[in-house]
Design goal:
binds ligand EPS, four-stranded antiparallel sheet, alpha+beta, Chorismate synthase, AroC fold
């Protein structure tokens, strides 16, 4: 079964990812993976760190002659910033400087108590969203696998701060999100959002927002109604919620549906040589199973908790009231988060594909997939 682990601290030597259970004979397109890493690094509102990092992968195992060979695939991404942090990140010697004033909203507080750490840096280094670079590398390999059976994944930003895009778009528009510095499709919002990010930066504050992830070409039948931990919507929600700073997930028109009646919500079924719907309020999943329509997920991100104008907190050493620790950070990372979400959705769907169609080699997956599709005719 497809699974992965990541390792690495934000300012350590780099990030490592191991993907286990990838099918053999998958062509690994390094340029595509590095292109995806660059997409994540863009986005108006990021801090100075992104001027330092030039994310690129090295593959350490699992690939020969440009194709996967069935063994664990190991990836390394170097942290260019490490050279500025060698002393603070020393693996062997005592660390002189410690952080003791947790940032409200961050893993700082609960993490340092849970792991009995007197230096909050030991928590923040791993909870940092730097880790998402590796998730994009792993997600882009999942995308390569999905492309071979016609599944594509898109995303766009639906709100930043109070500026919200309520329009619906068709597939031909999704790709143009990459042309916008804040990944919006509604061009009329772009200027206001950029101004808002600038204003927020001047105030020493941060902004959250929301985005949609749309997967096209997903066959009917991923996930299962039969058991709680096999439901596709549950697996996708878990995957999205695992991304740093995400506080809510919606599938299809979930929130509005709760205020509407059944006859207005459920997507009627038609047939013209193949089954289809005229609406997709279910977001492509019914009973925990993909129904052949686009899978549509919306995620909501809180404002980043590292503030230039910090909130009240307690010094965990003296137990006295202080302002929280200040740490260099982004003002708004919603555009970057939308790319990371594409990646984690890609991985989750690739995993479901390997559950449904086997997956020791790409040939086996494609042949099983084609057999299954033919039974539906
Ligand atoms: C992050 C804080 C910032 C971000 C970082 C996530 O890093 P730094 O503390 O070094 O300025 O830039 O994101 C990345 C490094 C990245 O690659 O996305 C945090 O605290 O989560």
């Amino acid at each position: 079964m497809l699974r992965f682990l990541t390792a690495g601290e934000s300012h350590g030597k780099g990030l490592v990812g191991i993907i286990e259970g990838l099918p053999s004979n998958l062509k690994i397109d390094i340029d595509f993976i590095n292109y995806e890493l660059q997409r994540r690094q863009k986005g108006y509102g990021r801090g100075n760190r992104m001027k330092i990092e030039k994310d690129k992968i090295s593959i350490l195992s699992g690939v020969r002659g440009g194709i996967t060979i069935g063994g664990p695939l190991t990836i390394f991404i170097e942290n260019k910033d490490y050279e500025n942090w060698i002393e603070k990140m020393d693996i062997h010697n005592d660390i002189k400087e410690t952080i003791t004033k947790p940032r409200p909203g961050h893993a700082d507080f609960a993490g340092s108590i849970k792991y009995n750490q007197s230096d909050i840096r030991n928590i923040l280094e791993r909870s940092s969203a730097r880790e998402t670079a590796m998730r994009v590398a792993i997600g882009s390999i999942s995308k390569l696998m999905l492309k071979e059976i016609g599944i594509d994944i898109y995303s766009y930003v639906t709100s930043i701060g109070i500026f919200e895009d309520k329009n619906n778009y068709d597939i031909n528009h999704f790709k143009s999100a990459d042309k916008s510095p804040v990944r919006v499709l509604n061009k009329s919002l772009e200027g206001n959002i950029i101004k808002e990010i600038d204003k927020t930066k001047d105030k020493g504050d941060t902004l959250g927002g929301s985005f949609k992830v749309i997967s096209t070409g997903v066959p009917i039948g991923l996930g299962s109604h039969a058991q709680w931990d096999r439901k596709l919507d549950a697996k996708l929600a878990q995957a999205i919620m695992s991304l740093q700073a995400i506080k809510a997930v919606e599938i299809g028109d979930g929130i509005n549906s709760s205020r509407n009646t059944g006859s207005n919500v459920h997507d009627e079924i038609f047939y013209n040589g193949r089954y289809f719907r005229k609406t997709n309020n279910a977001g492509g999943i019914e009973g925990g199973i993909s129904n052949g329509e686009y899978i549509e997920i919306k995620a909501y991100m809180k404002p980043i908790p590292s503030l230039k104008k910090p909130l009240k907190s307690i010094d965990m050493k003296s137990k006295k009231e202080f302002l929280a620790h200040k740490e260099r950070a982004d003002i708004c990372a919603v555009p970057a988060a939308s790319i990371v979400a594409e990646s984690i959705v890609a991985f989750t769907i690739a995993k479901e594909i390997s559950i449904k169609f086997g997956g020791d080699s790409m040939q086996e997956i494609i042949s099983n997939y084609n057999n299954y599709i033919n039974t539906q005719k």
